[in-house]
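seq:
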Amino acid sequence: MKIDTRNWPELLQQTGDRLNDWMNSINPNDLILCVFGFSVVFVLRKLLAGGSVRATQSLLSQFSVTLSEEVTSQLEKASEILIVTFAVYLALQVFHPPELVGNFLYRGISSVAIIAVFGTWFQLSGPFASLLRSDKLSPVNVETDWIQRITQFAVLLFGLTSLLKVWQVDIAGALTGVGVLGAGLAIATQDLIRNLVAGMTNMSEKRFKTGDAIQVDGQFLGSVKRIDLRSTLVVGFDQIPRHIPNSDLSNSVVLNYSEMIHRRIMLNVPLLLTSTQEQVEAVRDGLQYYHQTCGDFDLSDDAPKYICVSNLGASSIDIFFYVRTTGPNYDQYLQVKERLTLEILNIVKGAGATLAYPTQTIRLDGDA
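struct:
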């Protein structure tokens, strides 16, 4: 409705007359009923809000999602405000206020509801972003500060747009300017956007998480310390931090050593060419027995168990030993290799054999 501002006294007089007529037309019984109903709703607002939040929690529990006390408290506050504003809206529907006053009241109620909803989203952006740290939802543990900042900015933008829309403020020109500005920013920040999308891809693929030991392109090896908006911080075992762009990680072959279930041991046990068949078989059988009984190796059906005479080399008879340990722990792996090495020496010695090693004989022809 367009308002003629050229004659304010007359406009105010008309508005006052309409308000007087409307107030005189109100049925006292309806007024008492509405006041009573609003009072009941206002008194029971906490109980009603708590019931709605508990129903939401029950629904989310079906998806193994639990709400923290902070989230529950914020949702209950927002529900209380929405319940009260809805009660006021119903009361206005009963009394039918004049158009000018009614429009103002309806827009005021809508504004309160919008502020309650978007304000709650703004407050909960941090807790919801922190859900990415939960192993129940995702094993990817990332720095969520930037996600929280982007979420809060989006909530403010949509909330402000909704408020302006309620009060019928023309924002078409502003939106056009924002669109042009956004297109320019997209071109200027295409590298940032590419890294942002790549970071989200790395997260969705669950390639690694904070604390994992990774190797990039078969060269750089280090530990993931932080996954951020543009790059991932990886500290090498030389303790030098590397900020690797997410797009580079997305396009690289990344080996995640922390996701290993087992470690393999692959080696050759070389015996002298002069070793007898009985000695070679005794060493092989001793290694097989140790593999089965020591408890250091994985004996499941899908685990590799290759212990056999494999090669007749230029200077040795080789026994191939290829098995898998029971766990991925590196310290445990070193201890397993130490025990295996000492046992190999005992087995070879017990079989009366000798380990071979490369030798060269140089003959010098002296002067006759």
